[in-house]
Amino acid sequence: MATSQELRDVLAGGDTLTIVCHNNPDPDCLASALALGRIAATVGIDERRILYSGNISHQQNRAFVNLLDIDLRPFEPEAVVDRPEGSLLAFVDHAVPESNNEVPEGTPVDIVVDHHPVDGIEARFVDHRVEVGATATILVEHLQNLGVELDATLATALLFAIRRETLGFLRGTTSAEYQAASTLHDRADRDLLRKLSTPSVSGVTVDAIADAIRNRVVRGAVLITHVGRTIERDALPQAADYLATLEGVETAIVFGIVDDAIHVSARSTDARVHIGEVLDAAFADVGSAGGHREMAGGEIPLGILAEYSADDETLVDIVEQVVTARLLAGLNISENGDSVES
């Protein structure tokens, strides 16, 4: 496993640091970026920037950025391509160029810190731990090992990120999350934590969740549903979290059309199902998908189907049929809900 001193040594060799978040960054990614930037500051890197692509549409993510006053900038290709010597590039909470980010394939990366299962990571410093519940947990360890001060803002960001990523320490949690939380607890701003945990919800998000509830189809312990078209991509994981709590449901998958792509969010408590592998098997040939045993997501470009108008119900019907069929096949379930013999 990579050491904190190795991370410090790589940073010490740089003059500037560009941290690229994954598409549509969440609190785990954003808090990890803040933490890495703070470590970089201790070795004398004054020029630091955090870039993101996609949208920050989830109400908790917007509150996270606004309340913590995080300086985010839209992704700039020129910031990562043909970088001058001494300009470092880092990924947090993702790991491979052109996979859930807009960094061109083949771009050299200096630092990767991630907890998602993924292959093909190449960087000068790699801390990749799929066994932990959050990337923020890894950064807390490095902050401690390097003696970096944890002020209230950083501690609050990291603690909220760990809580959110693990659904309140109920999903994918390890002893490392509890140890990190213990370190952060007394330093965090309790009032700010409460505000982050209870942001206002937009009407569009409520509508999307209502559509997911109305369109649900249950096959045994598996629930599959869609929201049609929506501008609130982050309504999908919220709907998946809610629907996974329905009685008798062990796996909930929600998909919808956002701009020119199909987005998928899935949750599972079924010990027989690795939902990340299911999504990867279902959509690897047409898009990018995967994740953990209990939580996963994916994005599939619409391709030629994007030519349909935004209000064309035919497109929604086609997407529903195709995506549902692929999911049922990936889950080894027939249309009537029976398991298919392998």
What is the oligomeric state here? single chain
The termini sit apart by 38 Å
Structural class: alpha/beta
Using the coordinates above, name the CATH class of the largest domain: Alpha Beta
* Overall number of strands: 12
Task: Determine the CATH superfamily of the largest domain.
Answer: inorganic pyrophosphatase (n-terminal core)
Largest sheet: 6 strands, parallel
Number of helices: 11
Strand order of the largest sheet: 3-2-1-4-5-6
Q: In the CATH hierarchy, what is the architecture of the largest domain at level 2?
A: Alpha-Beta Complex
Beta-strand percent range? 15-25%
Would you identify the regions where 5 or more consecutive residues have pLDDT less than 50?
A: none
Q: Return the CATH topology of the largest domain.
A: inorganic pyrophosphatase (n-terminal core)
Protein name: Bifunctional oligoribonuclease/PAP phosphatase NrnA
Organism: Halapricum salinum
Pfam family, one: DHH
InterPro entries: DDH_dom (IPR001667), DHH_sf (IPR038763), DHHA1_dom (IPR003156), Oligoribo/pAp-PDE_c-di-AMP_PDE (IPR051319)
